[in-house]
Amino acid sequence: MFPFLTTLLAATASATLTTRQVDYGSLHCPSDPLGTLTTPTYGTDGAIFTVCCELLIHAPPLAIHHAILDFKSYPKWNTFITNITLPSNVTFTPWDLYVGMPMTFTSNGLIGGLNTTSGEILTLLDATGSSDYLINAWRYDDGVGGISARAEHPNVLVDLKNGSTRYLSYETYYAGLSTGIIALLKEQLKNQFEIQGRGLKAHVEII
Question: Which residue, among 51, 49, 116, 108, has the nearest Cα to 81 in the 3D structure?
Fold first, then answer.
């Protein structure tokens, strides 16, 4: 129990510190296929690859922020992450969410028609807009402290001051025992990130 709490608190503190040091609003999807992007918890050390989607969405940042975190509504628009299992103490999303919250994602489209699952932990909730952008993030939980694989998925929403938002959603994968196997799915992951982004755009622009 105590090692878990220590790891969780350290990850949360690291996410807060790293977020303050990095201007996430200035980031863009890498033009170099080998390029990577920093994340709140892990930074850049050990980064192997990044999958990324960047879009212009005609909706304000806060509306998009809420839609991304409204996990219970994902089946309405998200064909990649088709279901998210949440703790029993979470009734309403996004209002009941909290940093450190565990989740289980069910995804589609990575391995043929098979569904895959992954444990995730919510690492960052920032809807203050104090830096002209909003950001939220979650990280992959391999169950063994990141020895097998580490990854984190930030969503950055830059306010364009005209009712529109530059949406940047990416996941960076770090060195681990199974990262090489995951890298074989890089193109599928990239494709699903783009499909997910277009689904989100369509969803929020008609709200």
Answer: 108
Question: Rounded to whole angstroms, how far apart are CA atoms 120 and 32?
Answer: 27
Q: Where are the alpha helices (DSSP H) in the chain?
A: 2-21, 61-69, 74-77, 179-183, 186-205
Q: Between helices 61-69 and 186-205, what is the axis angle to 10°?
A: 120
- Per residue in 119-158, pLDDT (tens digit) is 999 999 998 877 899 999 999 999 999 999 999 999 999 9
CA distance between the termini of the chain: 43
Alpha-carbon dihedral 16, 21, 26, 31, rounded to 10 degrees: -90
Residue 76, token pair as written in the block: 């309405």
Round to whole Å and give the CA distance between 27 and 195: 20
Q: Which two tokens stand for residue 64?
A: 């998009």
Question: Of 203, 132, 165, nearest to 58 (Cα)?
Answer: 165
Per-residue tokens: 130: 């104090």
* Residues in contact with 50: Cβ distance below 8 Å, sequence separation at least 6, in sequence order: 30, 35, 36, 37, 170, 171, 172, 173
